[in-house]
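chain below, 160 aa
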Amino acid sequence: MDNRQFRNAMGKFATGVNVIATEVNGEVHGMTANAFMSVSMDPKLVIISVKEDAQMLDRIKESQTFAISVLSEEQQKMSMTFAGQIDNDEPVEFEYLDGKPVLPNSLAQIACDVSSEYVEGDHTLFVGKVTDIQLEDGQPLIFNCGRYHSLENEKANSAS
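prediction:
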């Protein structure tokens, strides 16, 4: 199989969209990601995956912390901004949860301390020990087959 076929196959798995953020020397850094999963309830652990050539890799290694903002369907612009797909003319404002930067109005904000890290292929997996969580109501932003989706749009399309 070639890389395009592998990428297309992985794109068939619908995911939520997250912004991973950390702070180093008073500066907040973020990236859009969908490689995120829960691992354990006791202790509460999650995993994120960061590509080896991503600027975020060294920043998380330095800070030893990160936060996950699970985006709502209204936050597609934030996803595109942190994925480098668009330039946002307005400065992005962050809130803090347990001292870690999170995006306001996200469906879930999850603050973590790095528990361990593993290099696998061209990515590093960071296991994060969850230190705090904040939840909001709303619908998730979904990514599938290279496109953004929302549950409401999918419901309307399937009813037609």
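The chain is about 20% helix and 50% strand. Residues 81 and 95 are 17 Å apart (CA to CA).
thats it, cya
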